[in-house]
Each structure stands twice: as structure tokens, then as C-alpha cells.
Design brief:
The chain has 415 residues and is mainly alpha-helical. The protein folds into 2 domains: 269 residues, no CATH class; 125 residues, no CATH class. It is built from 16 helices and 9 strands. The strands form 4 sheets. The protein has a 3-stranded antiparallel sheet with strand order 7-9-8. The protein has a two-stranded antiparallel sheet with strand order 1-2. A two-stranded antiparallel ribbon has the order 3-4. Helix 2 packs antiparallel against helix 4, helix 5 packs across helix 8 and helix 8 packs antiparallel against helix 11. The longest helix has 35 residues.
């Protein structure tokens, strides 16, 4: 019978305390394997570069004066090396029970299901890079890939009770059982994580850079919590160290001037990895705290994503070849073609200075609604490498804010 706990918060099932060495040895082995996979991946990517170009998996960097072919979807190399490392690591956490003792089937199934979901997402992401799927398919793919994860959660826990924040307990009580809505929430978390990284992209190194900061934040959080909570936080650490290692190898080649493009494959792989550790680790709200820039970028992009305001096919910043700098990209439309909701959003964005506004009669020119263009609006034309550094700096600053919310401020809402 499943014991109730707060799935949306960071409460977990009580686990038998482990000896420090039993906890530490698999982490040391995982760290050593991570170093090894970094050294392997950083050498493997240049060797596969020509093979991707030969297979017509390449693109042209629109923010450069050169028209060189840049291999696309190299994130699949990073993802494969990450999965290979995790497959080889599978026996390590359970080595003491393989020769005797009670085998922890629940923990083993969670690890396998997590790898299955990530593997599915890697496959589907690569299919998107090759077939250029439509947006409705991009929303469906993470949902399908998360099903093994949700099934294991149902079998192992099936707890959908959440603790109500203090200000609302007078009206809702101490706890609320969300039932099926909790599984809907977890499925939506997987969809959001994969697509949030994908829509905050377009400059060299940004997708990988923001993902490494998020992964490092999750890793640090789990190191802080691992003394009090055992298996779930250990498993998160096992996933994050090889992920950071392979991503760092990819970033070395994707940083300005980029020699490879990561593709949607890497964005999907990253988002599903973060969703997996957040769901199985029972710290999904904390995981979302590390996505503050992505949440803002999504909310800022909603008017164009849902076509409340006209949205061009590409919203990348505009490259000025004369100055070698990026400028905010703009969209032109007739204000009469925008509905009432769209006009209200435009008014609010103008009032808060979130968009450039140039009107001539009924024709309006505004910047595209992305965090990248907003930074360019506030700062002005910026070199691509510096722009990426600024955006990653914003990610790091938001991580510090997330930790402040998670620890000092959380006590005002939860016991």
C-alpha cells in the first residue's frame, strides 16, 4: 500500500540510512566515469563532423559572414555517450546486493524507467532533427516518452497528495489529493522542460550553456539533500555528473564560433533528463525554480507561440555583417489583424517597456517576443559571444534566486 507524501514538494518516503562509504563509493565511480566520457566525447565529436555533413545533416550559421556547412544534430552524439555511460554504471549502485542480500527492485526499476524515457526522447528528438516535425508533434513527443516514467511512479508510489502552503490551509486544509491531475502535471512538466530549452535558443552555446547551469544547480541541490534523503537524491547525482560531462564536451565545440549545432535532439535530451530526476526525485517544484529564465521566456513568447500576435517562422536575432554584432529581430503587422486579447497584451508589454514599438498608421513594427531579443533591446547591438555570456549570467543569477526561494523563503510557506 502506497504511503502518502507530498509529490509536488520535496518530501520523500523514509529510507533506511546508508553508511557513508556505501553512498560515497558509487558517486566516486560515477565521477571517474564522467571524466572518462568527457575526454572521449570531446575527441569523438570532431571525428564525426564530416559524417554528419555527408549525410546532409548540416546547416548554415545565419549569424556569420561565412557560409560554411556546420553539422547539425550533434546532440545525438552527446546523448549516446551519456546513455552508454549510464548503461555501464547500472550494476554499480546495486553491487552489494548482486552477490547476496535483498535486491532493491523498486530502485532498480526507477533507474531503468528513467533511462528508457531519456532513450525514447533521444530517438524522438533525432527524428525531429531529420524530419523537421511540426509544433504539435513537438508537444506530443515528450508526453509519449514520459509514459514509462509515469507508469513506474504509479506502481511504486501512486501518491498524489500534496501539502497545501500555509496561507491557503484555512480554506483547503493541510493536504489535497490531486488524483489524476497530478499525473497530468508530471506529463506537462516533461513537455515544458523539453520545449522550454528549445525555444530559448538561436545563438552559439546558449542551449548547452543554460542546460549545464541547470544541471549543476540540480547537482548542487542533491548534494545538499543527500544526507537526509538516500536513494532518490543519489540517483539524481548519478544522472547529473555524466550529463554535465558530455554536455561540457559538446559546449567546447558549440561555443562561438560554433563548429557544430546541437539540434533539437540535445534540447529534448536535456529537458527529459531534468524532468526524470525531478519526478523520481520528488523535487519537481525545485526543478522548476531552476527554470526561471525559461519560464519567463515562455510566458513572454506566449502571444507569438499561440498566434495572438503575428509570429514569423524564425525569431532569431538579426546579424549585422558591418558591425559583426547581433540586433533584435522584428516583426511587422497590421494592428487591425490582432484580436482583443492580442491588443491587450501589446498594451501591457508597451507599458512595461518589454517591446520596441514603432507605429505608422495601422502598421506596427515590434521586436520578436524572446528573452534574447529583450536583452538586445535593453543593451543594444551585442557580439554573439558576449550575448551568450550575458544570457548564461542571467541563468546563474536566477539559480541563486532559486536557492534563496528554496531554503530561506520556503519556511514561510511550508513547515
Amino acid at each position: 500500500m502506497a504511503r502518502a507524501y507530498d509529490g509536488l514538494d520535496d518530501d520523500e518516503l523514509d529510507a533506511e540510512p546508508e553508511t557513508p562509504w556505501k553512498m560515497l563509493l558509487p558517486m566516486i565511480i560515477n565521477a571517474l566515469m564522467s571524466i572518462g566520457v568527457y575526454l572521449t566525447t570531446v575527441r569523438l565529436i570532431p571525428k564525426l563532423r564530416d559524417k554528419f555533413i555527408k549525410a546532409n545533416l548540416f546547416g548554415i550559421d545565419m549569424s556569420k559572414t561565412t557560409q560554411d556547412k556546420v553539422p547539425e544534430a550533434i546532440g545525438v552524439v552527446c546523448g549516446c555517450m551519456f546513455l552508454i555511460t549510464m548503461f555501464l554504471f547500472i550494476p554499480i549502485p546495486f553491487s552489494d546486493t548482486l552477490t547476496g542480500g535483498q535486491f532493491p527492485h523498486h530502485e532498480f526499476v526507477e533507474l531503468i524507467a528513467a533511462l528508457l524515457s531519456i532513450c525514447c526522447m533521444l530517438l524522438l528528438g533525432f527524428a525531429d532533427d531529420v524530419l523537421d516535425l511540426r509544433w504539435r508533434h513537438k508537444l506530443l513527443l515528450p508526453t509519449v516518452a514520459s509514459l514509462p516514467l509515469l507508469m513506474v511512479y504509479y506502481v511504486n508510489y501512486n501518491s498524489t497528495t500534496i501539502v497545501v502552503p500555509k496561507p491557503f490551509r484555512e480554506y483547503l486544509g493541510m493536504t489535497v489529493n490531486l488524483g489524476i491531475l497530478y499525473y497530468v502535471y508530471m506529463g506537462m512538466l516533461a513537455v515544458f522542460c523539453t520545449n522550454a530549452i528549445n525555444i530559448l535558443a538561436g545563438v552559439n552555446g546558449l542551449e548547452v550553456g543554460q542546460s549545464i547551469v541547470i544541471a549543476a544547480s540540480i547537482l548542487l541541490f542533491n548534494f545538499v539533500e543527500v544526507d537526509a534523503k538516500t536513494w532518490t537524491h543519489q540517483m539524481s547525482i548519478y544522472f547529473m555528473m555524466p550529463y554535465i560531462a558530455t554536455s561540457a564536451a559538446l559546449l567546447k565545440h558549440n561555443w562561438y564560433p560554433s563548429k557544430v549545432f546541437v539540434g533539437d535532439t540535445f534540447c529534448y535530451l536535456s529537458g527529459m533528463t531534468f524532468a526524470v530526476v525531478g519526478i523520481l526525485g520528488h523535487f519537481s517544484k525545485t526543478t522548476l525554480l531552476f527554470f526561471i529564465p525559461q519560464v519567463f521566456n515562455f510566458l513572454y513568447s506566449v502571444p507569438q507561440l499561440f498566434h495572438l500576435v503575428p509570429c514569423p517562422r524564425h525569431r532569431l536575432p538579426k546579424f549585422n555583417s558591418k558591425t559583426d554584432k547581433l540586433e533584435m529581430s522584428c516583426t511587422r503587422f497590421n494592428v487591425r489583424d490582432v484580436g482583443c486579447v492580442g491588443r491587450m497584451i501589446l498594451y501591457l508589454f508597451r507599458a512595461f517597456g518589454l517591446i520596441k514599438w514603432h507605429a505608422k498608421g495601422d502598421e506596427v513594427i515590434t521586436n520578436n517576443f524572446t528573452l534574447i531579443n529583450l536583452v538586445l533591446k535593453l543593451k543594444g547591438p551585442t557580439h554573439e559571444a558576449k550575448l551568450t555570456s550575458i544570457l548564461i549570467g542571467i541563468q546563474i543569477a536566477c539559480t541563486c534566486l532559486a536557492f534563496a526561494i528554496r531554503y530561506p523563503l520556503a519556511h514561510h510557506f511550508y513547515d
